Amino acid sequence: MTDYQTIIDTIGAQCRQSKDRGKVANYIPELAKVSDSKFGIHLVDSNKNNYYTGHSDEAFSIQSISKVLSLALAFTLVDNAILNRVDVEPSGDPFNHLSLLEFENGIPRNPLINAGAIVVADILVTELQDPKRDFLQFVRDLTNDQTIDFDKKVARSEKKTGFKNYAAANLLKSYGNLKNDVETVLDFYFHQCSIAMDCAQLTKAFFIFMNRGVCQRNKTYLTLGQVKRINAIMLTCGFYDEAGEFAFEVGLPGKSGVGGGIVALLPGKYCVAVWSPGLNAKGNSKLGMEALEKLTTESHQSIF
Ligand code: DON
């Protein structure tokens, strides 16, 4: 049996000593307040054994990691109808780029870049009775933790500086690919991104993608087809213009956020979350990526 705890302890010790920790995101001012010395890992295996180290139980802003959860909820509500409005191809562009959106007539390349996630947010705003409340409840139920909440300061902070997301939403609207008004959809989007969770909670939420759609409490949320599709989208699009590098170095489907979190999973085996707020030039957690490369290399386990 793989000794995950020893592997994680070793990775934690190495990463904590690292001098080059990347740069904490500052385009959302509230995120810039987080110390780059934070580092945590939590891994849960398919038998629900937990292994962890460092600041794994300290909540942080999940940001774009939320895009996988909103996509999953949208799949449960409208299934493949999502694909009429969003494509599933890697963009090869940074998460907030707009040029392809105009070039491709308002159909975002995939649901994990900002424009695609804003279309998914629009679907949820249409389909849910009380969108923010119902999305938060979905995350709380997946995790079996009713304490998870929005960080309203972070949501407000992003709203003040979210000019590119306003541009994306307006562009989508001009192409007829946003049904609700820009303000309502972005209010939902900024809140979904602001959710604060720790590494342990993230592995609980992402357990369904590792475990054929079934959560830790044995409730089925997604069909096998939906799980296959969401994991494929994570593998090919989860790290924007660094998706190739992540597949090459780590070899797992996963998703990053500018709060410095990364969640990744090996289907049928384990789900792992890492948090280190310093980002690399592509906006992904620098030590988070390095830690996951070490994990798959040391454990000799990846999807390949
Ligand atoms: O829309 C934004 O810019 C942020 N709320 C989320 C960006 C993000 O996390 C990109 N991930 N690496």
From TrEMBL:
SUPFAM superfamilies: beta-lactamase/transpeptidase-like (SSF56601). Its EC number is 3.5.1.2. It comes from the Bacteria. Substrate binds at S64, N114, E158, N165, Y189, Y240, V258. It catalyses: L-glutamine + H2O = L-glutamate + NH4(+). GO terms for molecular function: glutaminase activity. Pfam families: Glutaminase (PF04960). The keyword Acetylation applies. HAMAP family: Glutaminase. Homotetramer. This is Glutaminase. It comes from Ulvibacterium marinum.
